[in-house]
Amino acid sequence: MIRYLTAGESHGKALIGIVEGMPAGVSLTAGDINEHLARRWLGYGRGGRAKIELDEIEILSGVRFGKTIGSPIALRLENASHLKDQSNWPNVMAVEGDGEGIDKVTLPRPGHADLAGAQKYGFDDIRPVIERASARETAMRVACCTVSRTMLRELGIDVASHVTRLGAVGFKMPDSWREHVEELIEQGGAPAVYQAADKSVVRMLSTELTEAATEHIKKAKAAGDSLGGAYEIIVTGVPVGLGSYAQWDRRLDGRLAQAILSIQGQKAVEIGEGFAGGSTPGSAYHDPIIKNQGGQFVRASNYAGGIEGGVSNGMPIIVRGTMKPIPTLIKTLDTVDIATGEAQPTRYERSDVTSVPAASTVAEATVAWVLADALLERFGGDTFEQVRTRLETVC
Question: Would you say 72 and 18 are in contact if contact means Cβ atoms under 8 Å apart?
Answer without folding.
Answer: yes
